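Quick illustration, no need to memorize.
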Amino acid sequence: MTSLTLSACQTASKIDTDASSSSLETVDAVEADIVDADPERLGFIDSVPVIDSSLEESTDPEANTEEATDQEPVVAVSKPKAPDDIWDRIRAGYQLDLDIDRPRLSSQLRWFSSHPSYLDRVSKRGERYLYYIVDELEKAGIPTEIALLPIVESGFDPFGYSHGRASGPWQFIPSTGQMYGLDQTWWYDGRRDIIGSTQAAIAYLTRLHKMFDGNWYHALASYNSGEGTVMRAIRKNRKAGKPTDFWSLDLPKETRAYVPKLIALAKIIKNPEKYNYSTYFIPNKPYFDVVNIGGQLDLAQAAEMAGVSIDEVYLLNPGFNQWATSPDGPHRLLMPVGKAKQFRTKLAEIPPQDRVTWVRYTVKAGDSLLLIAKQHNTTAGVLQNVNKISSSLIRVGQELMIPVAGNNIESYTLSSHQRLLAKQSRAPTRNRIKINYTVKSGDSLWLIANKYETDSKTLARWNSMGLADPLMPGQKLVVWLQPKESTNTNSTRSVMKKVVYTIRSGESLALVANKFKVSVNDIRSWNPKVASQKYVQPGDKVTLLINVVGG
């Protein structure tokens, strides 16, 4: 029964029965319904500089001929020349029946073929990963069309996170990720690990393919909505005497579009000229090499040793959440093939104690292990481990060794914390006012969203959360308030500006509200910190949204 509740990318609970519970908010989730490009759909990966071709240079190019080594006349044996472009290799491994004409498929074909810039963008995102994925699919005997599945799932954004709590390029939800060995800790999330998640996706898809007697479309539908959902739909049709092929099944709306998206992409890649598209060239050769690092390592230090940017290290190793690799492993880093040798050499030269930066901390009155860990951007478990403490009890005057980031924490731009800050700083539209909200005991996404006249899904998206993610007291959220329409009948238009006003001696919120022609309630909703005070004090700053045209 446990197996029937699994799915890779959809939550088992009915969080939102009408909307997708796995499609990303940061990439094109319902492609056929979108007309205009939306900046919100660009992933973090799009802000990273284009790939430097020098990073891809391999020191072991594949030989094209084999020669005899004895004294007899040499006979050159020609090997088939490998394609130069990864797309040619993908086409050669097609196995699915693409000779299909269905309205659901036609709508997806129209959308993808009319958005070539989107196809280019996701291709550039996937350039680092496609060779490895195709290689592993071929080894497993899986159709190479499946290499396009991360486009459907995440738009090849390894940091993609859905409101259904699915994460990574293959969009595993927490429970299915754990079933397939993808650990999820403060330090590391295996669902975003390129090697780990790809191996898990292959294992899960292989199991589904066998479960559905070799029917890949049923297997793919199950990957999206769970095998139990597809099995029930098949039994229902069988009982009613109806066909049980994918196109005849009564499946969730998202799943009904999911398989057609993959087929549409496969058809376009198979014959791009037919759809007036030219594929973005991706070399058919390894982009990265796997380096055994043997223990925890600061990622900024790794980048410096390899001679690459810190962003490049995170993009190849997106499973690491923090400023260093996880102390519990995996103890490996992916590095561009052209930089791996240099990285191995420099890694061998540094002593183990220099792999991360350490500080000596003396425990003060009022300290706790949890508080010290939070102050130093680590966990209580790590402090217990490195200081050989069996419990959370510490005493005043005790000295602790604490691993810390070697660089300024802001320089780790693609760490989990910095990605969240970047997401929370991006206004969804112009003239929105940003509210910093601190979660209180008893809060829920619904309660906070209702307070600020928005919805839970939108609030979760602003804060890179899933709808089922727990809220903790003290957690910082952002709310982007929509300015209300001006009630000034003398003004035919409004231009809203954000103003930060400093309270002066003798002023109250009522006086400020009257001065700027806004309500006291608006000021309180825009400034939760001030709203929690009984009185405002001279020097307090309040943020106001003012209609500068309407007076």
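The radius of gyration is 27 Å.
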